[in-house]
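[Discussion] Sanity-checking designs against the backbone

I'm trying to build intuition for which residues belong where. Below is a C-alpha cell string of 384 positions. I'd appreciate it if someone posts a full sequence so I can compare it with mine line by line.
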C-alpha cells in the first residue's frame, strides 16, 4: 500500500506502476484499481486470483466486493488489469478461444456488470507474457493484436522513476515473505528447547496462577532480550532461544504483550499487562490506546522503523526454526507488522502461511478479515 500521490496520465504509466504497488509481478491475477477524482489519482489497489473472479458462481460476488472497496475508497472510475500467461489477443478473449481466454472474458464481464451501477467507467486491460492491450480499443495502431510490447512499460516515466528510486519487484507473490528454514540440526535443537519451555509452562499452570504468571513474564523477558540484541546488531538467535520463543508466543497473553512491546511509546505496558493474573483498568486503557495507534484513523501512528525491524528480525528467526505446525503466532505477528507498515501483499502471504500452520488461529482470522475488507492501518486512512 503506497500513499504517494500518483496521477495517471496514460494507461501504460498505471500498468508500469502496479507491480511496484503490489511488490511482485502478478501472474494469473485480476487487479482492480481505484481512480479518484478530480484527476484520476490512483487509490486502492486490490488483487485476486483470476480464476476466482472468473468463476461462474463465486465470481460475480467477488466482483461486487471489489467494486464496493473501490467505491468506499472514493473512486469515480475503475480499472481492471488481467494478468495472463497467454499472449494478449482481443479476438481470442472475445471468442473464449482457450481456457485462459475464457477466464479472462468472464472476469471482465463479472467486473463490468458489478461496476455499472456505481462507477462511471470500468476499463479493462490485459497483460500477457509479451504484450498488453485494452479490451475496449479496436484501433490496431493503438492496440495491435498481440498487444503493445512490455518494453513500453519499462520505459515509462513511472517505471524509470521506480528504478531510480531503487524499488524492487519480487518475481512472485510467495517471494514477498519467503523465510528460509534454518538447517535441520538447528531446527531439531529449537524443537527440543520449545518442548522443554512448553512443559515448564504446563507445570507452572498446575502449581498455580502466580507460577503461571512468572512463566509468562519470563517469556516476555526472552523477547525483550532478543530484540535488544537484534537492535544492537549482535549475532542471530541461538536455536534454543528461538525454540523457547516459539513456545512462549503460543501463549496468548505473552503474544499480546509482545504486540504491545512493538508499539512505540508504550513503555513498560507489556510488563504491566503480565503483572496480574487478569488485566487491571489502567492496563486495559493502555492496551486500547496501543491498539488504537495501529488501527484507529484518529489516533493512528506510523510504526517505529527500528522497533519493527528488530521485532520482525526476531520473528523471522522464530519462523525459520519453528516446526511447520507451530509457526502461526510468529507468522501472524509478522503479518500484522507488515499490514501496519502498509504492505498488504506481504501481510497476505504471511497470513496464508499462518493458516497453513493453524487454520483456526483466531488473531490470523481477525487480521484476514481486515485485509479482505480492504481496511488500511490507521495512519494510512488518516493521511488520505
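Best answer:
Here's mine. Compare freely.
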Amino acid at each position: 500500500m503506497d500513499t504517494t500521490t500518483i496521477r495517471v496520465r496514460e494507461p501504460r504509466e498505471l500498468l508500469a506502476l502496479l507491480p511496484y504497488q503490489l511488490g511482485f509481478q502478478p501472474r494469473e491475477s485480476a487487479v482492480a484499481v481505484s481512480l479518484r477524482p478530480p484527476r484520476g489519482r490512483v487509490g486502492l489497489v486490490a488483487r485476486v486470483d483470476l480464476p476466482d473472479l472468473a468463476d461462474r458462481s463465486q465470481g460475480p460476488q467477488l466482483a461486487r466486493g471489489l467494486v464496493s472497496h473501490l467505491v468506499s475508497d472514493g473512486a469515480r472510475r475503475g480499472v481492471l488489469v488481467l494478468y495472463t500467461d497467454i499472449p494478449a489477443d482481443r479476438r481470442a478473449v472475445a471468442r473464449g478461444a482457450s481456457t485462459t481466454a475464457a477466464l479472462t472474458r468472464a472476469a471482465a464481464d463479472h467486473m463490468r456488470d458489478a461496476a455499472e451501477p456505481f462507477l462511471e467507467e470500468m476499463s479493462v486491460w490485459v497483460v500477457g507474457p509479451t504484450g498488453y492491450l485494452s479490451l475496449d480499443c479496436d484501433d490496431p495502431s493503438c492496440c495491435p493484436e498481440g498487444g503493445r510490447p512490455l518494453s513500453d512499460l519499462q520505459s515509462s516515466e513511472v517505471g524509470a522513476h521506480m528504478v531510480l528510486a531503487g524499488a524492487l519487484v519480487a518475481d512472485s507473490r510467495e517471494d514477498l515473505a519467503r523465510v528460509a528454514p534454518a538447517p535441520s540440526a538447528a531446527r531439531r535443537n529449537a524443537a527440543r528447547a520449545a518442548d522443554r519451555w512448553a512443559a515448564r509452562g504446563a507445570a507452572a499452570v498446575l502449581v498455580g496462577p502466580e507460577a503461571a504468571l512468572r512463566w509468562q513474564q519470563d517469556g516476555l523477558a526472552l523477547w525483550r532480550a532478543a530484540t535488544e540484541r537484534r537492535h544492537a546488531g549482535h549475532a542471530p538467535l541461538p536455536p534454543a532461544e528461538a525454540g523457547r520463543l516459539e513456545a512462549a508466543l503460543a501463549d496468548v497473553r505473552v503474544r499480546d504483550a509482545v504486540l504491545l512491546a512493538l508499539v512505540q511509546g508504550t513503555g513498560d505496558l507489556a510488563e504491566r499487562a503480565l503483572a496480574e493474573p487478569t488485566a487491571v483498568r489502567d492496563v486495559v486503557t493502555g492496551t486500547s490506546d496501543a491498539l488504537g495507534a495501529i488501527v484507529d484513523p484518529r489516533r493512528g501512528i506510523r510504526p517505529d522503523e527500528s522497533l519493527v525491524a528488530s521485532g520482525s528480525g526476531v520473528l523471522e528467526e522464530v519462523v525459520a526454526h519453528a516446526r511447520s505446525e507451530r509457526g502461526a503466532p510468529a507468522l501472524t505477528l509478522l503479518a500484522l507488522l507488515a499490514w501496519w507498515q502498509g504492505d498488504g501483499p506481504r501481510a497476505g502471504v504471511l497470513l496464508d502461511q499462518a493458516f497453513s500452520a493453524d487454520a483456526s488461529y483466531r488473531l490470523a482470522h481477525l487480521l484476514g478479515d481486515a485485509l479482505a475488507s480492504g481496511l488500511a492501518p490507521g495512519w494510512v486512512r488518516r493521511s488520505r
